[in-house]
Design goal:
- One of its GO terms (biological process) is DNA-templated DNA replication.
- This protein is an alpha/beta fold.
- The chain is built from 18 helices and 7 strands.
- Strands 2-3-4-1-5 form a 5-stranded parallel sheet, sandwiched between helices. Strands 6-7 form a two-stranded parallel ribbon.
- The longest helix has 23 residues.
- The protein starts with a helix and ends with a helix.
């Protein structure tokens, strides 16, 4: 196995003309694709010099034609192909790809991304190996997986103990996509705490699968969506299950602030990945806010945020009982 960073630690001139990357873990393929695109394909050339081809009829002919198309006002043309079940069985049109690989244009960079195993006995696969490189990406295991989980939490300035790491591994094994999703939810729920321990994770994940059902985030979504009836129903459900009102309120305020920040950065042309990096927030909540950013004006969001901050003051000072104060904030 080669690490993604090791593969991408090359200049564009050092790259092989053809890469076939395969993995049982779609998460790794997506990460590789993101990193490859970010490093080697500047935004200003994408419109005319990047082609993405997904599983389609006449794939070999299409790839051959695209590969032989010269780049426009740059040195390289990039083609990223997600061919589905291709390279797993012999195909009558393999000859078109073999012809291409044996007479490959220097101005084209070809990248195949395949979810699953490939048949290395196929002639077309052997031709790729002869003219390019074939790489398998494997999920980390054992100590490597421990370090991966630690790094994921560290990205968001969180620390996690060994017992908690073992718990996550026991629940989700080395399924990186599931682990990333759950870590994102945990970080979101514990956004105001630096250290995350076994009891935190146990309570968050196991208590009626609160995170799995996303109750508290569904509550915020209902508020933002102006669905007052649903918001009150979810609020009562959470309170009956023992949720702390100020914790609910803290999460709502945090998500409204995040929505304002995402909206501002989206107006500046930033995408989800850029916003996540700038704000140092996991992509999971950023993606949710990104889709809602255009629904409200800045003024509407600021009024909503001010309302819930006032509710926090009312609860802390004892002016209103917590459940009543939250309901009042919802129906205003």
């Amino acid at each position: 196995m080669k690490d993604i960073k090791e593969i991408l630690n090359k200049s564009i001139d050092e790259l092989k003309p053809i890469y076939l990357i395969y993995s049982e873990e779609i998460y790794l393929l997506n990460k590789f694709k993101e990193a490859f695109t970010k490093k080697y394909i500047p935004d200003e050339i994408k419109d005319f010099n990047l082609t993405v081809i997904k599983n389609t009829e006449n794939l070999p002919v299409l790839v051959k034609n695209q590969a032989n198309t010269p780049p426009f006002m740059t040195e390289k043309r990039f083609i990223i192909i997600e061919p589905g079940e291709y390279f797993k069985n012999k195909n009558s049109e393999d000859r078109f790809l073999i012809e291409l690989f044996n007479n490959f244009p220097q101005t084209t960079q070809l990248l195949f991304l395949i979810n699953g195993k490939i048949d290395k006995r196929l002639k077309v696969v052997k031709e790729i190996k002869k003219n390019g490189e074939i790489i398998e990406l494997e999920s980390p295991k054992y100590k490597q997986l421990d370090k991966w989980i630690e790094r994921e939490f560290a990205r968001y300035n969180k620390k996690i103990d060994k017992r908690s790491i073992n718990m996550l591994e026991n629940m989700f094994q080395n399924n990186l996509q599931l682990l990333e999703n759950e870590i994102g939810k945990i970080v979101l729920y514990k956004h105001d705490e630096e250290k995350i321990n076994y009891n935190d994770i146990s309570n968050i994940i196991s208590k009626d699968r609160l995170l799995e059902d996303n109750l508290i985030f569904a509550f915020t979504d209902a508020i933002i969506g102006r669905n007052n009836g649903k918001a009150i129903t979810i609020l009562n459900e959470m309170l009956n299950d023992g949720a702390v009102p100020l914790k609910i309120l803290s999460t709502v305020i945090w998500q409204l602030r995040l929505l304002l920040s995402v909206k501002e950065l989206k107006k500046k042309g930033k995408d989800i990945r850029d916003i996540s990096r700038i704000l140092k927030v996991h992509q999971y909540p950023v993606k949710k806010c990104y889709s809602k950013a255009d629904v409200f004006t800045d003024e509407e969001l600021e009024i909503m945020l001010e309302r819930f901050m006032e509710t926090n003051y009312q609860i802390v000072t004892g002016k209103y009982e917590a459940a009543l104060a939250l309901e009042m904030a919802i129906v205003k």
